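Much of our argument rests on the idea that a fold can be written as discrete symbols. The record that follows shows the chain in one-letter code together with its fold in token form.
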Amino acid sequence: MRPRKVILCVDDNEQTLAVRKFLLETRGYRVLTASCAQEALQQLEAPETGTVDLLLCDLIMPHVDGNELVRRARVVRPGVPTLMISGTVSQFERGSEADAFLPKGACSPVELLERVRILVARKRGPRKAVISAPSWSPVVAMDSAMQRAS
């Protein structure tokens, strides 16, 4: 059995936090929650937290906003993917620090889960080429072309 991916979910609205936690846990993720940026940073710095595969946070929070949280989180845990959510679509420009952005009321739970799945998979890194495939295989050719383009 594969270990469950860990998502740190941060939102100052307790009800929203509980709904997201339930949604993600029913899909097999392990969810850590924090109601403010300081609490989230403490969890990221704590060695007992272990690996965090995704930071999912609200943009508008008291004291420290989502952008600042993402900046500080990347100092503590470099390479952790981030997904920011905001209640207003016009805030997209302000959410520029995150790897991905979703508007709170305008995205469905399915869209959120798909974005989470993609970001968690991206943390694993690129897929390796199939060694047993012949050199003319389209999979190997495509992987080789993608590596040269990077």
